[in-house]
Design goal:
By secondary structure, the protein is an all-beta fold. It has 2 helices and 66 strands. Strand 51 and strand 52 form a beta hairpin.
């Protein structure tokens, strides 16, 4: 059965009645318009899917998990799990996981429970159940639930493969088998990609064709098939499946025979465990195929063709706003409603949310959108005035226009559609502005004549000196607590910083291979930048360079920072969420120093890092005489995220001296007073060797 999409639209009156109403509205200078919820296809680009009894679980590339009961299309449910990375089925139980938690799903009520909750810095790649033991693969090690043991992998893991024992393919294409005590190298699978389990074999694609590795005799052979190897999509039972672009073809390996399963253009094929197929068709709709019947699943929406400029969400709903004049409103357990307001608003440039209302700065004016009933109305004063940006404070709304400058009105007048705002252009060299935002009660504004600031209690703008020299400004961010740091992003010159209101500037481009900046944001945990090439970079407040936030191979079109969450929107408008407190780098040191030492004694310092560091980061142990510069004095280093550093007090360290000792990181360079301590070296054996245990922690939250 193919389900039809729901069309949402208001009943309209006859042309004559609309004409009369329009004249009446013009007479009273009150403008309104109808909104139409667009009829859109239900598109969802999915990662994978599993079938449990009569429930199909679909994981989208937006990392949302959907449950479709009995394929009726009437009980489709977006589960409340966030940032899901994968699915694994064991009998009638479905397991799923995010970065550091493992869940099991109850198919009766779609409720889940946490099976394991690892450290927040964990990075779960996959999991399997062999026998009755849960085995979890992380980026560089395997965890066995029965023995609670961890076995290190010699190289980062790329694939976790089923077998009688865990099989792991590393990123350098070596195959390893694991027990809860050992890791054994099996073979190298040259240029392996698109790996699939096939009975006792591992089938994988290479640049020179399909190859098959027999896990019993440890031999590798070429797999000759009549279909091009680059069209291989997976295997089920004794069949291999291929997508030719025009057909999905099955190939029976024992009999060497082929058959056509489906004809047409398909992408993103999932071979379900009930021998049916889930796929995206040429239009992007999510289709379920069984018994020669195609069923359109009502999940997702046609959002990937839009440019998302803003996004709001809470546990019960999510709203995305498209540059082209569309509002995507998804309420939990309900179908997404897409409202097309483009004919009235034109391009939407910026939004802000006040309770259930969205205030929209648009090409054709200023508008108020009610998210509960999906209706939109204009502010008559701003009719056909280009509104490029807006922001709010506790008491006011501020709007900037490239034509008129800056307006403001009181927040309590939000629902007065005929309000008259106040102009706020004093101090501007020209009445024109296109970016405005509120940073801890300091308003910052971008105008063709430069960057300006104004405390919210003032109505006058003050220029950041000489800021007009920065061409093609694409964004700004101001962080008062970091020495009044103003970061200016440019489409041509990267990022420029001033800490003294423009008396001096410096480029902050170290670590940025692309200096064409699309967007920039900041909070108490650091700065975030999006480049034109689609990469996102992080700059810690105490750091000296930008570090790439490597999220697989995704390319991003926008970043939105709100309430401690960095929303990263990729080119297909999948929204990935990163709590920013997890990125702030820090180091925790457990000090167990004696009162004094003699030459030849050993000091051991346990440590643990947390947050985001560059791939080449090292933890360095430094020592110097107290009250002198550490300079380049180092006596040990490690690239482990946690462990211990030790050194022996050699003869070059003068007795009867007091010394400072600290641990620092290198990428970014990070030091903390809490990771610094002192000790004394004496000539003779000290009278007291009593240990004082002090745990110093630099907290990122």
């Amino acid at each position: 059965m193919i389900f039809k999409n729901l069309n949402w639209e208001y009943n309209t009156c006859s042309k004559f009645i609309i004409y009369c109403i329009s004249l009446f509205a013009l007479f009273f200078q009150v403008f309104s318009f109808e909104t139409k919820a667009a009829s859109t296809k239900n598109l969802l680009v999915f990662k994978e899917a599993k079938m449990l009894e009569s429930t199909l679980f679909v994981l989208g590339k937006n990392n949302n998990l959907y449950a479709i009961n009995s394929l009726s299309g009437k009980n489709n449910k977006l589960l409340e799990l966030e940032n899901i990375r994968g699915l694994f089925q064991n009998g009638n139980t479905l397991f799923t996981w995010n970065k550091h938690q493992v869940f099991s799903i109850n198919t009766n009520d779609n409720k889940w429970s946490i099976v394991y909750d690892f450290d927040k810095n964990a990075n779960i790649k996959a999991l399997k159940i062999i026998g009755n033991e849960l085995i979890v693969a992380f980026a560089d090690h395997i965890y066995f639930s029965k023995s609670k043991s961890t076995v290190k992998c010699p190289f980062p893991i790329s694939h976790f493969i089923d077998g009688n024992s865990p099989w792991v393919l590393t990123k350098n294409n070596y195959l390893y088998s694991f027990t809860d005590k050992t890791c054994t190298k099996i073979a190298k699978l040259d240029s392996a990609k698109q790996v699939s389990q096939f009975e006792n074999n591992i089938v994988y694609n290479t640049n020179s064709g399909l190859r098959i590795f027999n896990t019993l005799n440890k031999k590798t052979d070429y797999l000759n098939t009549p279909i091009a190897s680059n069209q291989f999509v997976g295997s089920r039972g004794e069949y291999l499946f291929f997508n030719t672009g025009e057909q999905i073809i099955g190939y029976n390996y024992p009999t060497l025979s082929t058959f056509t399963l489906l004809s047409g253009k398909y992408t993103n094929i999932a071979l379900l465990n009930n021998e049916n197929i889930l796929y995206n068709d040429a239009a992007g709709e999510c289709m379920y195929y069984t018994s020669k019947t195609k069923t359109t699943l009502q999940i997702g929406t046609d959002i990937k063709s839009f440019s998302i400029i803003d996004h709001y969400e809470n546990p019960k709903s999510a709203i995305s706003i498209a540059h082209q004049g569309y509002i995507f409103n998804q309420v939990l357990n309900a179908e997404q409603i897409v409202t097309d307001i483009s004919a009235s608003t034109g391009i939407i440039y910026k939004t802000t949310k006040v309770n259930t209302d969205l205030l929209l700065a648009c090409e054709k004016g200023l508008f108020l959108f009610n998210t509960e009933i999906n209706t939109c109305a204009p502010y008559t004063y701003f009719n056909n005035i280009i509104c490029n940006g807006l922001c709010k404070t506790d008491n006011f709304i501020y709007i900037c226009s490239s034509e008129k400058g800056v307006y403001k009105f009181k927040l309590n007048k939000l629902h007065k559609m005929n309000l008259e705002p106040d102009l706020m252009n004093e101090g501007l060299l020209s009445p024109s502005a296109y970016i405005i935002d509120n940073y801890d009660d300091i308003l910052c504004l971008v105008s063709p004549s430069g960057v300006y600031q104004s405390p919210i209690k003032s109505s006058k703008w003050t220029e950041f000196s000489r800021s007009a020299f920065v061409p093609k400004i694409t964004g700004i961010t101001y962080y008062k607590k970091q020495r009044n740091a103003l970061f200016i992003a440019s489409a041509e010159n990267g990022i420029i910083k001033t800490n003294n209101e423009g008396r001096s500037y410096e480029a902050v481009n170290l670590g940025l291979p692309d200096t064409s900046i699309v967007n920039i944001a900041s909070d108490s945990n650091g700065f975030y930048a999006l480049t034109k090439s689609g990469q996102i970079y992080f700059h810690d407040h105490a750091g000296v360079e930008w570090l790439p936030l490597e999220k697989e191979t995704s390319l991003y079109g926008n970043i939105i920072l709100r309430d401690g969450i960095l929303y990263m929107i990729d080119k297909e408008n999948n929204i990935n969420k990163q709590p920013t407190w997890e990125l702030k780098p820090g180091i925790e040191v457990t000090w167990a120093l004696k009162n004094s030492y003699v030459n030849g004694e050993k000091i051991v310092i346990p440590y643990r890092t947390f947050g985001f560091f560059g791939k080449d980061n090292q933890i360095v142990l430094q020592i110097t005489k107290r009250n002198t510069d550490f300079s380049d004095n180092y006596i040990g280093f490690s690239d482990a995220k946690q462990g211990q550093l030790a050194f022996t007090i050699h003869d070059s360290i003068t007795p009867e001296g007091e010394y400072s000792i600290r641990l620092v990181t290198t990428e970014p360079f990070f030091r903390s007073e809490k990771a610094t301590n002192t000790f004394t070296v004496v000539k003779e054996t000290p009278l007291s060797n009593k240990k004082t245990l002090i745990t110093e922690t630099n907290t990122a939250k």
